[in-house]
C-alpha cells in the first residue's frame, strides 16, 4: 500500500459524504426545478444545503452560489466584477503567487485592455503590504488575494489587506480553497466581498464548489440559460454533489481544531525526523503564518523530478507544487516569486498532510527520504 501525502492536491471523499450523496442519487433524484413532488423533494435538499453552507460561512443564503469548483468560482467572480465595473475603472490587483485559476484570468483580462498589478511576496510567501497600499488607485475595482497558498501553506494577512482595500472603492475577493478545515471562514469577520471554495480539498467530491458573493456586489454573471441559482448560473444543479459538499464542509468545520493539532504534530515529526537524521533541507514558507497542512521543503542534494520518481517507486505520493504544474518542467511560479533562485525552485517538494495520515506513515516518508539521501551521498552526488 502506498502512502498518500498530497492532500493539498485532493482528498479522498469521506464515508459520511458518500452516504449522503448516495441517498440523493438513489432516492432524491428529481430535477430541483420541476414542480412535481419529486422535483420539490430535490429542491428541499438543495435549499437545505445552501442554508447549511451559509450558516458555516456566516453568510446569507442568497449570497451562496454553487459552482463546479474553485476554477469556475474564480473565473466567474474575477471576470464578472472586472466587466461589471469597467465604467468605474480598469485597474485590478492580485498577487504573484495565486493559483493559475486566478492568475490566468487576470492575464486574460490584460488582453481585454485591463491593467493588472501583481504584488510581490517575501521569502515566507507573504504579500508586500506597502506595495499593495501604493498600488491601490482611484480606478482599482478589484483586489484578489488568496487566503492560504496551495504550494507552501503560507497564510496572507487577510485582515490588513481587507482594511486597506476597504479604504478604496475596490472589492476584495479571496481564494480560500486551502483554508477550509484549517482556519475559520466567517465571511463577515473576514470582511470580504467574494470568496471561492472547492469541495475536493476537504473530503468532498470533485467538480463542485462555492462562490460567496456579498449582497449588492456588482458582478456580470457569465452563464446564460435557465433560471437556476437565482438566474446567476444557468444549468441543472448537481444536487448529489452539492449535498456531499455540504456534509464535507460541516465535518471540516466541526473538526478543525482536532485536524490542526494532528497536522501540526505530523509536521513537527517530519522536520525533527529529517533534522535528527542530518538530512540537509530548508523549509519553504513561514514557520508561523501557516496552516501546517502543507510542508514545502528544499532538498539541495536532489532535483525534484528525481526525488518524486524515487519516492513514487517507494510508494510515497507527494508533489512538486501545484498539481497543474506537476509533471511539467516549468518551475513553480510561487517558489520563483519567493526566492527567484533557480536551484531552490527546482529542488523543492510539497508534502501535504491530512487527518487521515498516521505517524507510522510519516515515519516511512522520513525513512525513504533518508535512504535516497544516503544513496546520493554514497554516489558522491552530494
Ligand atoms: C488555491 C486553489 N485555488 C483554486 C483551485 C482550483 O480548484 P478546482 O480544481 O477544484 O477548480 C485549487 C486546486 O488546486 C487551489 O489549490
From TrEMBL:
Cofactor(s) of this protein: pyridoxal 5'-phosphate
Reaction(s) catalysed (UniProt annotation): (sulfur carrier)-H + L-cysteine = (sulfur carrier)-SH + L-alanine
Enzyme class: transferase
Keyword Glycoprotein: no
UniProt keywords, alphabetically: Iron, Iron-sulfur, Metal-binding, Pyridoxal phosphate, Transferase
Enzyme Commission numbers on file: 2.8.1.7
Domain Aminotransferase class V, chain residue ranges per copy: 3-364
Pfam short name (any one): Aminotran_5
Database matches in PROSITE patterns: AA_TRANSFER_CLASS_5 (PS00595)
Keyword Transferase among UniProt keywords: yes
Protein family membership: Belongs to the class-V pyridoxal-phosphate-dependent aminotransferase family. NifS/IscS subfamily.
Protein name: cysteine desulfurase
Species in which this protein is naturally found: Staphylococcus americanisciuri
